[in-house]
Write a structure and sequence with these properties.
By secondary structure, the protein is an alpha+beta fold. It has one domain: 3-Layer(aba) Sandwich (Aminopeptidase), CATH 3.40.630. It is built from four helices and eight strands. Strands 1-2-3-4-5-6-8-7 form an eight-stranded mixed beta sheet, sandwiched between helices. Helix 1 packs across helix 2.
């Protein structure tokens, strides 16, 4: 069962990050990481080739109120995004009764390998279980995306199944690995 989310008034603090709603003033930071080849492709979308593309997507983040900006405190800039989306589990007979959200994330390439996304995911999990009343979260990665696999494993998600994801934007299919994390007892 899907959970209504609205991150527009939410700020989550970690040691190195602030997770907060996106603002129009984040456009240049967003374009800076979303335009780098290899970043979006890991999540099934092509890197942004124009600032107009970033502006359109940023507007959707603001309007839909499901995506946090990942703000790096020391560097004073947005370095990624972390969204709470409708989950594949909402359609799966074994999980559809659960109050569940899907977590998806993207991080600027120069910040990969520093443990920032596990830090951000942990804060969002705590918020989701404690404030939103989520019973589970799902997450996934493309088979070849070892960085996301490691994040998911560090955050204690359990593997559920393999599937195929077709990216309309990239006009190709990816082998997709799906995971779930139930609310701690």
């Amino acid at each position: 069962m899907d959970i209504k989310t609205d991150v527009s008034g939410v700020n989550l603090e970690t040691e190195r990050l602030t997770l907060r709603p996106f603002a129009e003033s984040d456009l240049s930071d967003f374009y800076a990481y979303a335009s780098v080849p290899g970043v979006g492709e890991m999540a099934g979308w092509p890197h942004h080739e124009s600032i107009a593309t970033s502006e359109r997507i940023l507007r959707s983040f603001i309007d839909e109120k499901e995506v946090f900006a990942v703000y790096h405190k020391a560097d004073r800039k947005v370095i990624g995004s972390l969204g709470l989306h409708r989950s594949w589990a909402n359609e799966d007979e074994a999980y559809k009764a659960l109050r569940v959200k899907e977590i998806g994330y993207v991080l600027a390439k120069e910040y990969w390998g520093q443990g920032l996304i596990p830090e951000a995911v942990s804060a969002v999990l705590e918020y989701g279980f404690d404030t939103l009343g989520a019973e589970a979260f799902t997450c996934g990665h493309f088979l070849e995306n070892d960085q996301s696999r490691r994040v998911i494993e560090k955050c204690r998600f359990k593997f559920v199944k393999r599937s195929e994801y077709y990216s309309q934007q990239m006009r190709r299919s990816f082998e997709d690995m799906k995971y779930i994390l139930n609310r701690p007892l």
